[in-house]
Amino acid sequence: MAELWKSLPSWVRNIVVPILVLILAWNLIWFVVGVVSSLIGFLIKVLLVVGLGAAVVILVKKAAKS
């Protein structure tokens, strides 16, 4: 691997490789942000469904008593 790195021209080592690393890091960061935001959205939807279900159960129990 060191031989391959040394065989590259200096402009590739100093310009092209850092730009590629920055692009890959940027994409990785946005991938993580997307996964986290989708998980948060999913949890919000689950909480909404559970809350609505609890409200329906409470209303049905109240209606059954009266």
TrEMBL record:
InterPro entries: Uncharacterised_SCO3924. The keyword Transmembrane helix applies. It holds the Pfam family DUF5326. Keywords: Membrane, Transmembrane, Transmembrane helix. The chain crosses the membrane at residues 12-33, 39-60. This is DUF5326 family protein. The lineage of its organism: Bacteria, Bacillati, Actinomycetota, Actinomycetes, Kitasatosporales.
